[in-house]
């Protein structure tokens, strides 16, 4: 596999608070990178750098060899067509039906006729195991169904990358397991590169081909699950086992 993303010396602050501290890493094509970390560690900030939703104070984000931190907003449209994002809330349009929500990016970015658009929508709904809901409104769907519709919409333009921001937040364990399975099948069957930010360790174990643990603006751990389980890093082990961590500053 070759690197699709190369992130170099990424630094980001909010006011006086340093969030990302010269963060450098690579993401290979076709892998699923899961980013773990305590609340406020900068996981979602890192994710939003990967499609230009936020810009760093310094450093670079190379996507397929192009530094997207230098691109104007209009030039980021092409990047965002290739790098989709599934927001924590799902971000569906409440006033639009399921059909219109999923069709929205297709209508915006292609010249396909309406018959072809509907075919794409139906195909994406089948991918997420959700059919017969075209005319329903988001308010009429369960939380898990809304997440699946949002996933279908993120796949509507056949992106190369999907970024997932806490995809199982607010879902019960059974529905969370369904979302985890769909993320894994998306990565394996479609060859999509996935980056997942989550607190959900079950989701992380199901989906991750690579695991990163973010702490104090840098990756404290980077590797496979077997390497993580074998690590002697106390902070990482406390996180993975849900234990409270105490250090000399507490």
Question: Short description, anyone?
Answer:
The chain is 36% helix and 26% strand.
Question: Mind explaining what this structure looks like?
Answer:
- The protein has 250 residues and is of the alpha/beta class.
- The protein is built from 9 helices and 10 strands.
- The strands form 2 sheets. The chain has a 6-stranded mixed sheet, sandwiched between helices. Strands 2-1-4-5 form a 4-stranded antiparallel sheet, covered by helices on one side.
- A hairpin with a 2-residue loop joins strand 1 (3-14) and strand 2.
- The longest helix is centred in the last third of the chain and has 18 residues, at 173-190.
- The chain is globular and about 55 Å long.
- The chain starts with a strand and ends in a 10-residue tail after the last helix.
- The mean pLDDT is 90.
Number of DSSP helical runs: 9
Strand order of the largest sheet: 6-7-8-3-9-10
Q: How many β strands by DSSP? A: 10
Helix content: 25-40%
Coarse morphology: globular
Average pLDDT rating: 90
Percent range for β-strand residues: 25-35%
Characterize the largest beta sheet: strand count, sense, and whether it forms a barrel.
Answer: 6 strands, mixed
